[in-house]
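Ticket closed. Logging final result for histidine kinase.
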Amino acid sequence: MTHYNVGDFQNISNVFVDYQNLIPKHNGFVFKFIKKNNKFIHTFAEGDFLKKVNIPPSLIVGKTLHELLPENQADEKQSCYEKAWNGSIINYEGNLKGFHYLSSLTPVIVNSQVIEVNGTAIEITEHRKNTLKIQELEKLSLIGELAAGVAHEIRNPLTSVTGFAQMIKELSNDKTIDSYIEIVLTELNRINAIVNEFIFIAKPKENMKTRETDIKALVSHVVEFMKPQATLNGVHLIESIHFDQTLTIQCDPNQITQVLMNLIQNAIEATTDPSIQEIVISLKNRHSDSFLIEITDKGSGISQERQKRLFEPFYTTKEKGTGLGLMMCKRIIENHNGTIEINSQLGEGTTVKINLPMVFDHQQLQG
Ligand SMILES: Nc1ncnc2c1ncn2[C@@H]1O[C@H](COP(=O)(O)OP(=O)(O)OP(=O)(O)O)[C@@H](O)[C@H]1O
Ligand SMILES: [Mg+2]
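Final structure:
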């Protein structure tokens, strides 16, 4: 590795006027480089941004890109530097220690020769974050539109394929064909479930059919319904209801059933350790106008990093998961003016808390 001294470049840098004026005032920096022995060497660097990321100019001056940055980043910038050295003005985005900047390279040409390149950069971290948020929202709404379109197109052919597969099953006397058709039907059922989830995501509010519902009975019904599946996985479902009086609420019972089934299913899938086999589903009448449903497992738990992504569409860690389950739960609960939160400790387990109002404003729902 060749090292150069700051002094080696002072003459070149001094050719140019007061570069303090070039330094972008708010979180910017300027820099210069030359090409020597076929390498780009930084000859100057200064600015608030460098202070912010705690990189002193002395660390940059005299160094090549590859001495400063990880290889892939250095290679990328090297090609920008090369183009600037060939006489073009180049703009590119970079990032140092998680802070983003937009940089512009301007070649300095004397007697038709590039003798130095000036770089100016401004920080765009906030702008970058906002852009990402907008992209996320656009992605969601695009998914909604796509969901509606694709699901409708798929549903009709799917119905006829399923119908014919069932006919083949009924007509066949061949055990091998029967077993194949059984697989075809199972997979078709899975596609059907995904298509239905898509339709749901596209139009959850329009699909809501609310009525007075005995929530204690609904929870018991779901727990009973899920027990065989839990037993198959060696898991015991415990229903725990903390009050006596009947609790009648305004909700779409089918949608709330779906939410609970999804959450219990997730809890079962997370409980792989045969020594910890309990999942508790509790119903607590917390306030007079709202109540709490909790589903607690002592399964794998979720790391802090993964917790941030749980409600994203298609986020799954399962081979056969669609990653739409939690997103759909959140939509349904929010459409009921409720909240859903997930508390989890990696290696210890997970509690999902659903808070639902007894009566929710139906007018608001229509709006
Ligand atoms: N109780 C839980 N314990 C541990 N991890 C969980 C739990 N619930 C959800 N997760 C994690 O969150 C991810 C997303 O869950 P989600 O229900 O949205 O999708 P999925 O279960 O992967 O697929 P599906 O669409 O079939 O529900 C899961 O893949 C899993 O990594
Ligand atoms: Mg799931």
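Residues 211-366 form a domain with the Heat Shock Protein 90 fold (CATH 3.30.565.10). No further action required.
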